[in-house]
Amino acid sequence: AHHDTPLSKAQAKARMWLTGLSEKILYYGNIFDVLVQQHPEYVSLAWGTFKLLFVAIANHAESASKLSKSVSQVADLLPQQSLLLVLYPTAQMQTSVARLYAHILIFFVSALKWYKDSRLVHAIKSILQPWDMKFRTQYEAIAAETQQVRRLAEVALNVEVRDTRLEVLQGMLKEIRLDLTSQRTTLNRVHLNQMLSLPMWNSLPTSGESLQFCRSMRNRHRAPMRLQLPEVEKLNAWSLQKSSPLLLIDTYIPAVAKAFMVDLIDLVQTNRMQIIWALRYEEYWSQRLRATDIVRMLTLQAMQVGAGNLLDSPFPITVEQLREAAGLQQWVAILGRMLTSISSAFIVLDADLLAHATAYDRS
Known about the structure:
The chain contains 14 helices and two strands; from the N terminus they run H-H-H-H-H-H-H-H-H-H-E-H-H-H-E-H. The radius of gyration is 50 Å and the shape is rod-shaped. It folds into two domains: 6-165, no CATH class; 201-362, no CATH class. The chain is mainly α. Helix 3 runs parallel beside helix 7 (136-196), helix 4 packs antiparallel against helix 7 and helix 8 crosses helix 10. Residues 1-7 have low confidence and may be disordered.
């Protein structure tokens, strides 16, 4: 370790005293300049020599003080800029930090050369290259690049805050959508239950009852031949035609047509396509059915198939409209409006049931 000797302390005190004296003389330099102008023949040479000496001493002290302070400040900048680069590693930030490091290296190299110079060189450079001429430009370049790095960090921070706010808003919007979807599902379910609770449906068979009856009849009376079912892709393409497609099953063996109808329903259900039907059911022949009842069967099933979208239309079907519907035209209109809640669906009509209902309508 280095220990100051009494001589070095005395030299330091003398240097401090001489530096202070030089600064004071330079401070009152204007007064001496006036004296020089009044008596140039006596004091110009002496005063010029002393002034040069005092300027050299003051400049050397200023350079040493500011250089030490600047090196310390620049050293404090390094961890800050490194942290900003880690936090915001953008291309612009990397370029700006690289330029800053280049300016710092240039400044440190110049400072190292200055510290390695001898006292005589310091005395000469304090006159020829004072702080303002030698180091100020380099230090200001470091300060300017530091401000640029901080500005980039502020911009990156603002972008990060904006992205965070967008994420929060998107999360809130997602929650609101989920709440609205849940509320809509609940309202649709309540609306469906209200319509299904009407007594008018009690006289009609459920979709499961009529389909099960037709399946049992198909299995009980096996037809001597079976019609080949269409491929699912062709059936789907057929259902997606712009015009309402119609498929008629016409055969000279009624059992074959009835079996094909049930097989077709099973095929559609297996492939998760939407379908509604009006089929024969147990003891249907003993009831006075009309065409209105068949439309009501289809309406009941359409309500159940499109249960999730009953309230999506601008003017949804209400319980009061179902109670007040009387004639065939009104029920057909209700069925049409109910089908708008379904994107696409197959509608199956049993010819025997339709013939039984129209027979009563003609009577």
